[in-house]
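=== RUN LOG ===
request id: a7f3
mode: sequence -> structure
chains: 1
length: 92
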Amino acid sequence: MLNVIGLILDITGVMLLFVYGFPQPTHEEGVAMCLEDNTKLPDGRTVAEHDVEVRTTKSRYLVRSRLALGLVILGFGFQLWSTLNGLLGQRH
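=== RESULT ===
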């Protein structure tokens, strides 16, 4: 049963990783044109509104990618536990 739980956690984690990717450091380079927070963008939002949305999305992706990686590790742990339990149980 532990193997089944481990496999379910693993596949769920892998699907989430496929969508949200692995947590990564930012490697941004270059110089951007400076705009004020109240500057209107072509879509009608201000730079400040755009920045809030970007930070929210980035935070959501980071949390979900870490959750996904945790599920894969936890699933591996359940499978390892089940296998070791089976091996140690055969010795008796």
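=== NOTES ===
The two ends are 20 Å apart (CA to CA).
The CA atoms of residues 1 and 82 lie 8 Å apart.
=== END ===
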